[in-house]
Amino acid sequence: MKNKIFLFIFLLSIFFSNNLFSNQKKQYDFTNSTDAITQIIQEIKNKKIIFIGDIHDQATPVLFLAENLEKFYNAGIRYLFLEENSDNFIENPDNFELFVYPPWCSWGYNYEYLIMEKEIIKINIKYPNDQLIVVWPETGLHATKEDFYKEGNHYMNLRDSYAQKNIIKIMDNTNKKALIFYGASHGLKVPFNFSNIDYDVGEDWKMIGSYLNDHYGKDYSSFLIINFSTNETKNVKYNTNKDIKVLSKDVLTEVLKIDGIEKPEYDYYCTYPEYKASVPSYYFAEDYILNCLKKLTYLKDFSEDENKIDVWSKKSEKILAKYYLAYHKKIKDKKINLTLEEMELYREFLMSYNCIVDYLFGYNNSDLSLINYILDNLNKAKKINNIDIWPQYWISYFLTEKANISGNKKDYKKALKAWEELLQNDLIYESPVLKLIYKKISLCEKKLGNVNKSQIYQQKMNIVKDEIPINYEDFVYYGY
What is the 3 state secondary structure string of the chain? Predict the structure, then answer.
């Protein structure tokens, strides 16, 4: 699992350039820069294969593809290669599948991806005799649990080696053009090893982009779409907040140099002004999504080790599916209708720009400034959506963390008050964290000298009967 976390950190170092310049504010004017759509269409006309990198926790890359897919089709794209396996939405929506994971994590299976799939369906209805051919090149890959958990780059190499063979086999036998939409790191052209940064992971990771660059050379082109916006270190000017612009060679060279990258790893780096978080599909009450959640709650037989639960297991999905069905019922009963834009902002603050996961895995987890930053974001999330338990849950959790660091009773009182507020939300009884809530309340009461109350909540914790027990210290994602 450690390599999955580090991949995430590596992506952050590439995609977010918020502290690149340390002295005076840099000035960037992109108003006359080439539009990304213009450059991509030009490349489609001149190349056989185009790669556009997805960033799973960001909405802009996939929405950009959805909004412009018909333009890419008209420019010549007929094959569309998508990551991992099909969710069945295009071929058989009655058997739609999604991945239900903690919403403060940064994985795919987001609603914006479904918007893109709906656009594919529209295009194929419009052009029935010359449809987009959608391929998931990892279909049929046999990977064991041991492959998945093996330290280092083994699993990523397994995936990318398998996918590139299928892509090349198809594209070498057609005169059609292809667009690949995959996680951005899969499009890198130079194999990479993380051992010089964190730990020895053995073999280099050779990405799909590296294979395709070796095989097709100048007939392959890659694009990365990243957020690059005004902050405390730079002023960036665009025409509108909808712009996606290609970085000029001068600016790109400067950014890469400061970021410690010797030469471009993609052919084109495209930037946009407003960060938007993508939203997991399970936050939307469409029939095929709700049906999928219901199917997950019915699961009884698991292929995983019965003594272990992890965030990628069906056990984890089942307990979260149960919670989100209850969440949707409450949202419906209260007649609340949050828009996609509201939910994107909600997720942005709920994730705290990935800081919660960083904290849980030990990155600066005694840093009060980080805790305060996370709390500030969570309070913003709560203002948007106070039905979902997670903003208040994490507010309570991090106030307890602050109290544990300070040891002050006044801080434990604040934390206890937050936990008591969380108890007013009946969705906690459908959640996977009820035991942990009681445990934390018991701790706060004990620190305040309320021994009897502490014991009461300890007893409540012991009474809770989970269908699927969680070892929080091992599972980590809910805190411990």
Answer: CHHHHHHHHHHHHHHCCCCCCCCCCEEEECCCCCEHHHHHHHHHHHCCEEEEEECCCECHHHHHHHHHHHHHHHHCEEEEEECCCCCCCCCCHHHCCCCCCCCCCCCCCEHHHHHHHHHHHHHHHHCCCCCCEEECCCCCCCCCHHHHHCCCCHHHHHHHHHHHHHHHHHHCCCCCEEEEEEEHHHHCCCCECHHHCCCCCCCCECCHHHHHHHHHHHHEEEEEEEECCCECCEEEECCCCCCCEECCHHHHHHHHHHCCCCCCCCCEEEEECCCCECCEHHHCCCHHHHHHHHHHHHCCCCCCCCCCCCCCCHHHHHHHHHHHHHHHHHHHHCCCCCCHHHHHHHHHHHHCCCHHHHHHCCCCCCCHHHHHHHHHHHHHHHHHCCCCCHHHHHHHHHHHHHHHHHCCHHHHHHHHHHHHHHCCCHHHHHCCCHHHHHHHHHHHHHHCCCHHHHHHHHHHHHHCCCCCCCCHHHHCCCCC
